[in-house]
Structures are given as structure tokens and as C-alpha cells.
Design goal:
The protein is an all-beta fold. It folds into four domains: 9-32 and 43-93 and 165-189, no CATH class; 96-155, no CATH class; 192-294, no CATH class; 386-474, Sandwich (Immunoglobulin-like), CATH 2.60.40. It has helices at 9-15, 96-102, and strands at 20-22, 27-35, 39-50, 53-60, 72-75, 83-90, 107-115, 122-133, 139-141, 146-147, 153-155, 168-175, 179-189, 192-202, 208-219, 225-234, 262-267, 270-275, 279-281, 285-298, 300-306, 326-332, 346-353, 359-367, 375-382, 386-401, 404-418, 424-430, 435-441, 445-449, 452-459, 463-474. Strands 2, 3, 5, 13, 16, 17, 18 and 19 form an eight-stranded mixed sheet that branches. A six-stranded mixed sheet has the order 25-22-21-28-31-30, with no helix packed on it. Strand 2 (27-35) and strand 3 form a beta hairpin. Residues 1-16 and 243-260 have low confidence and may be disordered.
């Protein structure tokens, strides 16, 4: 004979303790560390009064893009005999559409206004209806009809337990004591990103520049982070492949403050920047904070003409080829140059004032992560008044010689013209292959690399210069 023992109803209700909730009102401290590539570490510390024993704790107002598998809860008050059995992330958020979906197959009350029988005014009418579907609109079954549009407003008897007003992490945990306890929840999340943007103002003589750095923060995580300690990690942190979001739109930037607001330190193989004050990252907000300011940074301007590697490998009929002369500026990131902070990668936008003192945009370029004492080199565009004409004047195949299977010679003429009222120097970079030597030349050269020759050619004001040379290549 099998005996079935049933617990009393009060005992069952006592075992099913109500869910306990913690919100941002319980927050004691909040820290957010944001990485370059749509990733952030959130540390949310709250003080919550917990009963002794097992309970479900609803940790509300976490990021809607939390990676639940990275969540870690620590008890900073009673760590002994505290543990988590299970955690669930509820991201099915309460909206009118979601609420209607959850009531498919259930009864609701529809409240509408209908005219009085005597035609004077209207009255409120309540009807019970069953929700048949909620895919592309409501389908309601009344006692005498089915309607596919809402005749009035819907009154629901309650909110389903699996719908949350805010993103919530539900933790099934065991508390060793009944008392107020400090809990710290750490997790990784998407939806938070940052980038560095720089504004450089060239001096009238183009020998120095003033540099302002800004950090642009974008919060699309689905949650706000009030009064948070903000830290930024610059560097290429390795991550498993995942979809990448498009970068946020570029914002116009004001002049940076007179002092840098970010403190920098090394972190593993990266650099960590800490804002010197708490800040609030609102939901769906883009914010900018000052990173650095530097004035009177020495800068060097360079005109560069780069040759085509194809022209060294075969007879090449250029027919008056006119390649563009690029304009570059570079400066050193060192204390002697009034800088010295490791610079996170970003876009540098360069301005120069016109004759009336109004700043004009003259170019921009992307800058990679730049350590101390390294050089920042930016291409701003192509020169208007400095032009070039290039042609191959000879190409010879000399055949095999000694250990070399093929020996060739090629000759070029590069005419450089300068319409400016001041002299300039153009760096002509020639990509020469194989074991090469310059056998004839009109200007001195430097061997910059195994396959690159540099000719620095002075060009007088409102004049021209012609570079000629012959290269012999063995392979």
C-alpha cells in the first residue's frame, strides 16, 4: 500500500517565498570599464537586506545587452556559506505589444465608449473578450463577434510573471544570515563603446600645433549608469569572433578644457585611462569628456611623391602621367613636445586659421595607438600648388649576369613644379625591387629600406626642379 503525504497549504506557501528585488536605489558604488570594441565591464555594488536561507533575488536595471555567462556575484559582507545555485536573465521586457502576446488564449476586458440609446452623449461599456492572436495586430473574440481592431482600450487583470519592466538578472542564492549585505555584481556587456577624437590647430607658420583630445562615449546598452567611476582601456584586446556594430556618428567638438581630465596608467599590455570624477552615462546617450590638451607642439610638414612599383618591372608608356603630391604632417609624442601621454587610436582633424582668423578644416587622418616617444604621422590631402609630371625614359633587359638570372635597367624623369611663393622640398619615394643600385642620378638619395629609395628634391618658389636617375636591378 502506497501512502501519499500532503503538506499543508500554509507550509507550501511558506516554502514559496516571494521574490526579493534590488534596484539602483540600493546602489552603493558603480564602476564601468569600457574597451575600444563595443565591450564594457560593469561592477555594480548594492546593499540589500537578505533573509536567511534560499531565495530568488531579482537584480534589476542591469544592461539589456549583458552577457549572462560572464555574471559574477560576490558577497562583500558575508562571503562564508553564501552561494548561487542558478541565475536567469529576463530580457522579455514589458511593452503593450508584449503584454498582448502573453495574453493570447486568455480573457481580457475591453473598455469602449458607445452612444446612449437616446443619442445624447455616450457611456462606457465593458466587454469580456478572448485574445486569439497578436502577431500583426489584435484578434479578439467577443461573445457575439470577432474583431481585428481594438474597439477601445484593453484592461488586463495583471502582469505575467515572465515580463519585466527593466532588464533583470534573477539569482537563486543562499544567504547565511538575515541582515543587510553588500553584494557586487560584475558582468561584461555590449552596447557601451568609446573612441578618441583629436582636434589640431596649425600655427600660421605651420611649425607648431595645438592639440586637444576628446573621448566620445556611446551608451546603447539599454540601461543607465548613474555616478559611475569611468575607466577606458586602450589597446587591441583579443576576443572571440562576433558581429561588430557600426561606429557611432562623429560629433563636432568644442575646445578642450585647460587641463586633462584623464589619468593614464599601464594595464597588462594596454593602457588604462581613468576619469578624475564620477559621471553619469544615460541610456541612448553620446557624451564627450576631455582627454588631453597640448599647446605649441613642434610639427613637421612634408610633401611626398610615391612612385608606382609596376613601372620598374616592364616597359611603361606613361604619356604625361601626373601623379599627386601628398601632404603630410608629423609630430613626436614626447614630453619635450609638451605631450608624452600614450595616445589611444582615433581620428585627428586638423584646422588652420585663414587671413581673417577663422579656422578652416584642412584634412584628417586616422591615428593608431601611439606610445610615448613615438611619431604621429598624418596625411592631410594632396597639394594644390605643388605638382609633378613623371615618365619612364628608358627600359633595358641586360640578361643574366653571374649568379643573377635577370638584370634590367630603368630610367625615370620626374619634373616637380612649385607655384607657391616659398621654396619647398619634395620627398620622392621609389619602390625598387630586387638587388638594386642607382647607377646615374641628378640628386642624392637614401636607401630607406631594401626596396625603397628616397630622393629629397628642393623646388624653388614659383619654379621647378627635375629629378633624373637610372636604376639597375638584379634578381
Amino acid at each position: 500500500m502506497r501512502i501519499l503525504v500532503l503538506a499543508s497549504l500554509p507550509a507550501i506557501l511558506a516554502a514559496q517565498a516571494p521574490e526579493q528585488t534590488t534596484t539602483q536605489k540600493d546602489q552603493q558604488a558603480l564602476a564601468v570599464t569600457i574597451y575600444n570594441d563595443n565591450l564594457a565591464l560593469v561592477k555594480d555594488q548594492r546593499e540589500v537586506r537578505l533573509p536567511k536561507g534560499d531565495l530568488d533575488l531579482a537584480f534589476q536595471e542591469v544592461s539589456a545587452q549583458i552577457r549572462p555567462e560572464t555574471a559574477l556575484i560576490r558577497n562583500l559582507t558575508e562571503s562564508k556559506d553564501f552561494w548561487v545555485n542558478e541565475q536567469n536573465f529576463d530580457f522579455d521586457l514589458l511593452t503593450p505589444g508584449k503584454l498582448l502576446e502573453k495574453y493570447v488564449g486568455r480573457k481580457v476586458t475591453v473598455v469602449s465608449q458607445k452612444p446612449n440609446p437616446d443619442g445624447a452623449g455616450s457611456r462606457e461599456v465593458r466587454e469580456e473578450a478572448e485574445v486569439l492572436a497578436a502577431n500583426e495586430g489584435a484578434v479578439l473574440k467577443f461573445a457575439d463577434r470577432i474583431e481585428t481592431s481594438l474597439p477601445g482600450r484593453i484592461v488586463y487583470p495583471g502582469v505575467p510573471a515572465n515580463l519585466r519592466a527593466r532588464p533583470t538578472l534573477v539569482l537563486s542564492l543562499h544567504s547565511p544570515k538575515e541582515r543587510a549585505q553588500k553584494l557586487e555584481l560584475s558582468y561584461l556587456t555590449a552596447g557601451l563603446s568609446w573612441r578618441a577624437d583629436y582636434v589640431a590647430n596649425l600655427s600660421p607658420d605651420e611649425k607648431t600645433l595645438d592639440l586637444g583630445g576628446w573621448v566620445t562615449l556611446t551608451n546603447q546598452s539599454g540601461s543607465a549608469y548613474p555616478n559611475a567611476t569611468l575607466q577606458l582601456v586602450a589597446g587591441d584586446v583579443h576576443r572571440a569572433p562576433a558581429n561588430r556594430e557600426a561606429p557611432a556618428p562623429v560629433m563636432a567638438m568644442a575646445k578642450a578644457s585647460a587641463r586633462a581630465e584623464m589619468k593614464e596608467e599601464s594595464l597588462f599590455e594596454y593602457h588604462l585611462y581613468t576619469l578624475d570624477r564620477p559621471t553619469t552615462l544615460k541610456e541612448n546617450q553620446t557624451k564627450q569628456v576631455a582627454l588631453l590638451t597640448a599647446q605649441g607642439v613642434p610639427v613637421r610638414k612634408e610633401y611626398v611623391l610615391r612612385g608606382d612599383a609596376y613601372a620598374f618591372q616592364a616597359r611603361y608608356e606613361s604619356f604625361g602621367e601626373k601623379p599627386k603630391v601628398g601632404v603630410f604632417v608629423e609630430f613626436r609624442n614626447r614630453e619635450e613636445s609638451r605631450m608624452g601621454m600614450p595616445l589611444p587610436k582615433g581620428v585627428v582633424r586638423v584646422y588652420k586659421r585663414d587671413g581673417q582668423g577663422r579656422p578652416q578644416f584642412v584634412g584628417e587622418d586616422a591615428m593608431d595607438h601611439t606610445p610615448r616617444n613615438e611619431t604621429v604621422r598624418l596625411k592631410l590631402g594632396d597639394a594644390f600648388d605643388v605638382t609633378a609630371a613623371r615618365k619612364q625614359t628608358d627600359y633595358k633587359v641586360l640578361g643574366p649576369q653571374g649568379a643573377y638570372r635577370q638584370v634590367t635597367e630603368v630610367a625615370f624623369q620626374v619634373e616637380l613644379r612649385n607655384a607657391k611663393k616659398e621654396a619647398v622640398t619634395v620627398s620622392v619615394l621609389e619602390p625598387i625591387f630586387g638587388d638594386w643600385e642607382i647607377v646615374q642620378k641628378s640628386h642624392d638619395f637614401m636607401k630607406e629600406a631594401s626596396g625603397l629609395a628616397r630622393f629629397n628634391v628642393p623646388v624653388p618658389a614659383e619654379g621647378s626642379s627635375t629629378l633624373t636617375y637610372r636604376a639597375r636591378m638584379r634578381r
